Amino acid sequence: MLIKIPRYKFFKHYPDFPKSNDYHNKYSFPETYDYYIFSTPPAKSTVGLSNNISLGLTKLVKVLGYHGLYFMGDTTIPWLYKKHHYKPVQKALDYIADSNIKSTFNGALYADVSELPIFVRHLFWLERCNGVVSNPYFTDSGFNIIGNICKYGNIHLSTINELTDDLLNDVLAETPLSIFEGESCGSSAIPHRILA
Questions:
Q1: Which domain of life is it from (predicted)?
Q2: Domains in the chain: how many in total?
Q3: pTM, entire model
Q4: Angle 116-128/46-63 helices, nearest 10 degrees?
């Protein structure tokens, strides 16, 4: 089950969480220690890729000793603002709505490690096909990491401090994730991705 946290309450605890305001052309991101792009093992399909991302991120959360992650968009636009015709995206939107999330809710969603694989699998489809207007970022309860999943299926992760960075590098081998060595995540068109 997802736990919802109102946006203003979330920012009281995590004031440096990423936020943007296109109207005023403002964007803020916390100062970080280091930045990584993680890829998953190759998959034979996009469904396989979504499974690999959810399992990889969940394993990383567990080996880092976290109990779950908070997710929130960088804008004030609600999670369920957009409608989408593609079945996997519609399933993801239904999953959020079925979690008692109202159409006006724009705050944070907390997924514990038991819910995380399911949520991340749905979040992948929302991000890949532009099913959410805002860019959903995630963090742990101690605000040690900031990350997001890109439309190409990679996990972008920043460490906030040296201690977390050292821990991440120590435990990464216990996960199926590997450091992405390319210059960019991808440049090809993505089927079913709609314009914002």
A1: Bacteria
A2: 1
A3: 0.93
A4: 130
